[in-house]
Design the sequence.
């Protein structure tokens, strides 16, 4: 069976780590521990997670270690970046990198960031907001 590949954006990480036990926490745990799901990320995403550790405290550090050990790192190529560029607001380089990573890896982006609306509408990559991910994954 083919695994579902997902890239959890920074806003899911922050929500899951700092809010106590919520649906976002349950979702991130499902992403981390469900063997039918493959976590995908890139070096920029991990740097973003690191920057937000101060907001999340000890739970964020623990969650980051779990994610690091489970995540397949995929760095996008120039072609993927150029295909995604027209759909991402100018200057949003991390968002462009994440979208291109999803395109290259055939992964679904989980985010509440509205910067991904145009690329979602175009159908270039799959984008689920956090509520859709919770529903689609049965959390």
Sequence:
């Amino acid at each position: 069976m083919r695994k579902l590949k997902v890239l959890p954006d920074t806003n899911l990480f922050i929500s899951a780590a700092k809010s106590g036990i919520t649906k976002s926490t349950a979702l991130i745990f499902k992403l981390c521990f469900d063997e039918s799901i493959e976590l995908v990320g890139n070096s920029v995403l991990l740097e973003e997670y690191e920057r937000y550790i101060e907001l999340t405290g000890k739970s964020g550090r623990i969650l980051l270690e779990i994610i690091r050990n489970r995540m397949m790192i995929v760095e996008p190529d120039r072609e993927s970046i150029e295909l995604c560029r027209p759909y991402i607001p100018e200057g949003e380089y991390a968002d462009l990198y994440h979208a291109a990573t999803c395109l290259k890896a055939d992964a679904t982006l989980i985010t509440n960031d509205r910067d991904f609306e145009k690329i979602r509408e175009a159908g270039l990559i799959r984008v689920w907001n956090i509520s859709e991910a919770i529903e689609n994954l049965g959390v």
